[in-house]
Design brief:
mainly alpha, globular, 254 residues, Fic-like fold
């Protein structure tokens, strides 16, 4: 069933995006990115606060008392998103090479990235155990093949599947969550939608939805979760355009 509210929001967003000044969009995107980096790394246990991450990202100042690993995670997240945007600007479809490069950037100076694991892993708190060995590589092969051929008429569902299936396979020793959230946004943005952020306060709902896919092959809970995050971003732009229109009307009436 199509989400009428979502479709209406997308249409409103398409109509309003040209109304918003470039400076406002740039400011909003910067604020989004800082929050996105904070939440994506915090979900994985990074202890830098939002203000500390803002200082690292915008002022290039290291934070005393924090581990180099945590600081690199923040820097790397920015570099990975820059790479993501570069690939999108070149109209590159998501591929295995891009996935491995994103992981390598996200884990630079922390571990050897972009290399698939050859050992078993457990996901803390999860109801499933990722496969390993030949089965993992078989699942990865199918994942990349399905990415190429899977119907993309429902952009939200497709992007949600990419994230959920990648987490289920868990191909890297570490950094799978941050990579999966990058892949989610890659597919959303490639479809003309906005990138989303999953707040650390939502991680229980987030994990439960992913667990349902991994154990029961039920994608709908996670797709619904992603849809709600997308609605928030679309609504922010629509409300921004309304505020700008109000300001213009006031200026004209003076």
């Amino acid at each position: 069933m199509k989400d009428i509210q979502m479709n209406e929001l997308i249409e409103q967003y398409k109509k309003c995006v040209d109304v918003i000044p470039e400076e406002s969009i740039k400011s909003y995107r910067q604020d989004f990115f800082v929050n996105y980096t904070y939440n994506s790394t915090a979900i994985e246990g990074n202890t830098l606060t939002l203000l500390e991450q803002k200082t690292v990202l915008e002022d290039n100042i290291a934070i005393g008392g924090k581990s180099l690993r945590e600081i690199f995670e923040v820097y790397n997240h920015k570099k990975a998103f820059d790479y993501l945007e570069k690939c999108l600007s070149e109209n590159q479809p998501l591929s295995e090479n891009i996935v491995k490069e994103l992981h390598a950037i996200l884990t630079e100076n922390v571990m050897v990235g972009g290399v698939y694991r050859d050992y078993p892993v457990r996901i803390s708190g999860a109801s499933f155990t990722p496969v390993t060995g030949n089965q993992m590589f078989y699942d990865l092969k199918n994942f990349y093949a399905d990415m190429e051929w899977k119907p993309k008429d429902n952009a939200l569902e497709y992007a949600s599947w990419v994230h959920a299936e990648f987490v289920k396979i868990h191909p890297f020793g570490d950094g799978n969550g941050r990579t999966a959230r990058m892949l989610l946004n890659y597919q959303l943005m490639q479809s003309g939608l906005l990138p989303v952020q999953i707040k650390k306060e939502q991680r229980l709902t987030y994990y439960e939805a992913l667990d349902q896919y991994a154990t029961k092959n039920e994608l709908e809970p996670f797709t619904k979760f992603v849809s709600e995050m997308e609605k928030i971003e679309l609504t922010n732009y629509v409300e921004m355009s309304k505020e700008i229109k109000k300001m213009k009307k006031k200026d004209v009436s003076r």
